[in-house]
From TrEMBL:
This is TIGR00245 family protein. Keywords: Membrane, Transmembrane, Transmembrane helix. Its main location: membrane. Belongs to the UPF0014 family.
């Protein structure tokens, strides 16, 4: 596998942009310097850790490690879906519905793309499967969080109608 080598100059360019943001914040009195510094340190640490994890995964090329990484990605996506909700479902449904929909939608599309269009050898190669899953999860998270938001808002808005249906013996079926 070939890697793109980054020089110190390549890394200095984005760092210079962050420093310029800090200088602008100071000059304009926005008082965002501390938040910017903390966010920058977090970003660097996260990117270094993700780099080490991806280096391991790309070298291992194991269906077990790829599946484990994919499950972790789906769990983080599910947590983000819950965080975006204005009104949250109670109990297990809070995480379960979002996680189930995410796993079903993103998993199906990712597997379909890997097995019919991309066809890497092996099909579970993390170099292809994980970035593809990440892109699909980004879109899926938006759709599912909007759908759940509309569902919960509709239930609150139409509470009287739902309770009337239940009182008259209405069921899910």
């Amino acid at each position: 596998m070939s890697y793109i080598q980054l020089s110190y100059g390549d890394l200095a360019q984005p760092a210079l942009l962050v420093v310029m943001d800090g200088v602008l914040s100071l000059a304009l009195g926005l008082k965002l310097e501390k938040q910017l510094a903390i966010a920058t340190v977090r970003m660097v640490v996260q990117l270094v850790l993700v780099g080490y994890v991806l280096t391991f995964l790309f070298a291992a090329v194991s269906p077990l490690w790829t599946a484990l990484a994919a499950i972790i990605m789906v769990l983080f996506a599910s947590r983000e879906i819950v965080a975006r909700q204005k009104r949250r479902l109670p109990g297990v449904w809070k995480y379960g519905l979002g996680a189930g929909c995410t796993l079903l939608a993103a998993g199906t599309v990712t597997m379909l793309a890997l097995l019919t269009e991309l066809r890497p050898d092996p099909w579970y190669h993390p170099r292809y499967a994980l970035p593809l899953l990440g892109m699909i999860l980004g879109n899926t998270m938006t759709g599912i969080s909007l759908g759940l938001d509309v569902l919960t808002s509709s239930l609150v808005r139409e509470r009287a109608a739902v309770e009337a249906c239940l009182a008259l013996g209405g069921t899910r079926h």
